[in-house]
Amino acid sequence: MQRSLSAIQPTGVVHIGNYIGAISQFVKLQDETEAFYFLVDYHAMTVPFDPKELNKNLLQVAATYLAAGVDPTKATIFQQSQVSEHTELAWILACLTKMGEAERMTQFKDKASKHAERASVGLFTYPMLMAADILLYDTNIVPIGDDQKQHVELARDLAERFNKMYGETFVVPQPMIKKTGARIMALDDPMKKMSKSSVSPKGYIALSDDDKTIAKKIRSAQTDSVGTVGYDPNHRPGISNLVTICSEITGSSPAQIIKEFEGKGYKEFKEVLAQVLIEFIAPIRTHQAELLADKGELVSILNNGSARAREVAEKKMKQVRSALGIKL
Ligand code: TYM
Q: Which of 154, 196, 248, 283 qualifies as a cystine partner to 20, CB 3.0-4.6 A?
């Protein structure tokens, strides 16, 4: 059976972009593959963070996984920092990565350019930790949004390089990126990606937003002056983004949605989209709150998942040490 693996950073809230681009794929793949989905708490440390917030976010994201349909009886759900092999392999992969390769990572360039003097070395080596996350588990498929594609490509390059230099050790992973919905844009600025770390909460719909907040954010989402519901991401990014979100949640194609709203304006479309999102998010939000009321169950799911992940990772690291000549 093929193995799928992916992760979410426990920073900020999980939003509808994370769901559409990534989590919706996890839910599907847990039935078709041996699945590993986890919380990358070490990745969350690459930018300044508050330990109390990180602790809260870990449980919040674990609850979101479950509430959105990731099933711990089907998938291994775990915490990165409970499996120390991740940081161990990351060091080895850092030694295999060229400076130029790491410097080309667009996410590093974007984030570092915003806080040049404060950017950490960890932010620079983040893609090697992500490559370790993937390669430790002999992963075949990595379901992700478009923004993580370059990182998975680096993981592929590093796997091939290692295999060539030290002998066949790693499976070369494939990214799995949706045709539509791989890059949901910010509601208040459709030229930018919807992001957890965005300054204004107006840009995203969180899976924990209440009905009123969802309706308000959709009502104020940026569109254009054309006035008709259309789909043309290059020329009309705002309305196209809303159509994409509607399409991904309802399962109707953009063409069907456009047809349905022929002769109607943005206001009517936004009212329907808000309702679609409210009906989709309300049960997730309720389930999340129930799960968070009993921290014990979440912690036990993560501990059990981490024990299972550790078994796989320990075995792989033995192979790696042996290939590198450090096993005596
Ligand atoms: P993170 O936490 O930023 O995002 C989690 C997942 O959501 C996707 N995503 C989006 N998809 C569509 N539209 C958007 N606006 C949008 N924003 C985010 C991301 O592509 C991602 O799939 N480095 C990763 C976490 C990670 C990882 C891994 C992923 C660490 N190790 C190993 C896969 C395999 C990250 O920060 O994702």
A: 248
21-76 residue pLDDT tens: 999 999 999 999 999 999 999 999 999 999 999 999 999 999 999 999 999 999 99
> Order of strands across the sheet with 3-8?
75-79, 34-39, 3-8, 141-143, 174-176
Confidence of residue 325 (pLDDT cuts 50, 70, 90): very high
> Could you tell me if the CB of 184 is within 6 A of ligand 1?
yes
pLDDT at 113: 86
User: What is the pLDDT confidence band of residue 289, given thresholds at 50, 70 and 90?
Assistant: very high
Please tell me the distance between residue 286's alpha carbon and the centre of ligand 1 in angstroms: 24
Q: Token digits for 294?
A: 């009993």
196 as an active site residue: the answer is: yes
pLDDT computed for residue 199 by the predictor: 73
The reported pLDDT for the residue numbered 12 is 84
Q: Is 318 a residue of the active site?
A: no
Question: Which domains does the chain carry?
Answer: 3-177+294-324 (3.40.50.620), 201-289 (1.10.240.10)
Rounded-to-integer distance, Cα 19 and Cα 15, Å: 6
**Pick the catalytic residue: 111, 217, 270, 316?**
111
